[in-house]
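agent> Task received from the user: take the single chain below, predict its 3D structure, and emit structure tokens. No templates, no multimer pairing.
agent> Plan: (1) validate residues, (2) run structure prediction, (3) serialize to tokens, (4) report one or two observations.
agent> Step 1 OK, no nonstandard residues flagged.
tool_call: predict_structure(input=
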Amino acid sequence: MGRTYFVEEGIGQYLSELSTAAKPYVTGLLIGQCSPQRDYVIRAVRTPPKDLQKEQNVPPKLASLDEEWITAHASQVSRMLPGGLLVLGVFMIVTPELSKDGQNALRKLIFSVEKSLTKRRLWKPAEEEVSERAALQICSATKKAVCRTYDVQDPKSSAKPADWKYQGALSASWLALGCTVNVNIHIPLLATSPNHDLEKNTKNGLNRWSKQIEDSVFLINGQVKDDDTELLEGQKKSRGNTQSSTRFSDVKVLTQLCQGSSHRSTATVQVCSGSINLRGAVKCRAYIHNNKPRVKEAIQALKRDIINTLSDRCEILFEDLILNEGPQKKSFEREYHVLPQRLFVPVAGSSVMLSDYKFGDEAAGEIQERFLEMLDQAVQAEDIHMAEGIGTVDICPVPDNLEDTQQTQLTKATLLLKLQQNMGVVVAAAVAVLASIFSFNYFSD
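)
tool_result: status=success, residues=445
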């Protein structure tokens, strides 16, 4: 039995309007949420035209489909989705003449989009997670819609039939979870790293930090809840279909300061050419369907938003630096950058808010233009809600006395390692070594 997709009613009208365009085909993305029982589609977004194509007709053959442009659009859209939402699949509206080739083109697009999105993620999907993605094909003449799914974890996956059902006010009363995470990440830049590859080092540092987030304890409204319990357990379920019925849960994130006693700690001495410091308080948000959601689903969605939002804005910052300063820098000096701030924009008829990032010098008009281009959504300036203060990136090279500093670090590390290796010696000797280290630190500082 295939999967069932419950689809926001307004999407049907949106797709119908796109099908009237005098083009041989129109492509786009399906946005929503997976769950073990069913999937939800709350947005459909057409692929924006390239600048060179705005004055030209679309080529009449699917062989000319610009796969790279469509996957780039999916990557941009994924940054604008809060926790719990993802690109669920791809749609294509085609003329009857192209209908036979449509499904093969959709299959290729689904795997290309998923591959592109997976590369950017700092988290891994859970074993029980839904891995099927939707391929929706609509005939522009008959308006007939055919939905199939492909398992993106299996490159040889064949199409499976799926149900496509419209439903009114689908996401009007979804549950929202929010938290503020204070970030203070110190990332060393190895001296062996070629050309001071800041982006690569930052991603490696964020990978380590993301594991801390995965292992954190999440308090929902001040309580630790079992993973398999219902998120709404003990609460009266709302039957309303308006935004006023939306429930918001405040979440606290408790990060472990150290590993448990069962884990053995090791120290590594590395020669560094500098460091990157990420500081700030990031606002995170996730949305979850209201069909008996489990605590595990909600926390997983929020964890991924925490990891994604910091990773995405670092990615945006480096893209901005490349545009302004070029891909390679000849000098390595101390730099101080401001991370883009997060903002949220409501979706009409839904409790869900979409997200974006804004640099300090960007005007509201630029945000509105981006929403219109990427998500095909008109946004009023007064509906743009800034969520947080300023976060920073401090890129610090080592001081001029690099050799002295490195020697000091190596001396301290050597003393500590020797102390660990000789824990069985006389206590008086250990006290003497500790005293010498304390004295050395006192004068060196």
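agent> Step 4: summary for the user.
Residues 4-170 form a domain with the Cytidine Deaminase; domain 2 fold (CATH 3.40.140.10).
agent> Done.
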